[in-house]
Amino acid sequence: MKNLTSKQKKILIAIFIVLFIIGLGGGIFLGISSKNNENENKNNIENTSEKSGNEGQKSKKTLTPEMEELKSKIEQDEAGYGNKYQKFEYCKNVYKRKPDRIYFKDPSKNGFFVFEKDDEDFEHLLEVTEDRMAYTTMEDYNLYAFTPDSINTMMKSKDTYIIFDYDNNNLSEGDSEYNKDIIFRFNQNTRLYRLVTYLAYFKELITRENLGKDEFANNTNTTGFRYMMYGDFMD
Predict the structure, then answer these.
(1) Which of 161, 167, 145, 14 is nearest to 99 (CA)?
(2) pLDDT score, position 189
């Protein structure tokens, strides 16, 4: 260093300064990248955990041989049916929007199973239910299957029910956004029954006492036709 000229010393000092700046900048960049990667990984883990929440819940419950057989039958149903789901559009004045939740009442169970709209299988259960409802309206012109039975009647009945339940909050029945609950009874020898029975296997049974509802339907003393065709042919 002693033998270097003044000019050479200045060049070396400039080189050291440049290298120091580059090193400092690189360190800051790596630190930021590491933090971003850490946050990204954390978000991915949280999203994956949230997405697989229902799957994890299912995996905790071991399938019985009966449920294994039912699962296999459902897979056959899905493969054979394809994507030909009918929309339930017959009662537009009553069925205005998707339900906030779906209840299932199996006559062999002393309670109800509930599927919330953020459940993993909610959308598929809804489209299969709509499909069954659509075919029922073609076969049942009196809409007997939509008779708005009371909860006590459902508890004693040997029929199988699905209920579309709505949160109407402060809306009254005269409001255009109001949607009254839809009660639908259907046969057990159907794709819908097999699917909802399998999905309900992973749900907790809710007893009548813990249901938190006095009734689903706002009028349990009318026919299915009058209840579902309100606004079309009825006063």
Answers:
(1) 167
(2) 95
Neighbour count for residue 147 (Cβ, 10 Å)? 21
What's CA 76's distance to the chain center, in Å?
22
220 to each of 37, 73, 216, 217, how far by Cα in Å? 58, 36, 9, 6
Q: How confident is the model at residue 90 (pLDDT cuts 50, 70, 90)?
A: confident
What is the chain's mean pLDDT, rounded? 83
Strand (E) or helix (H) holding 171: none
Contact by Cβ (8 Å): 133, 184: yes
Structure-token pair, residue 41:
């990984």
Name the more confident of 31 and 215.
Answer: 215
Question: Are 201 and 61 spatial neighbours (Cβ–Cβ below 8 Å)?
Answer: yes
DSSP code string of 70-134: HHHHHHHHHHHHTT-PPP--TTTTT--S--SEEEEE-TTSSSBEEEETTSTTHHHHHHHHHHHHH
CA atoms of 136 and 143, how far apart (whole Å): 8
Phi first, then psi, for residue 164 (nearest 5°) are -90, 115
Q: What is the pTM of this model?
A: 0.74
Main-chain dihedrals φ then ψ at residue 4, nearest 5 degrees: -80, 145
**H helix intervals, 118-186:** 122-139, 151-156
Integer angstrom CA distances of residue 224 from 31, 79, 87, 174, 185: 67, 33, 19, 20, 11
Residue 122's nearest CA partner among 62, 52, 59, 195 is 195
Q: Residue 176: name the closest of 100, 99, 97 by CA.
A: 97
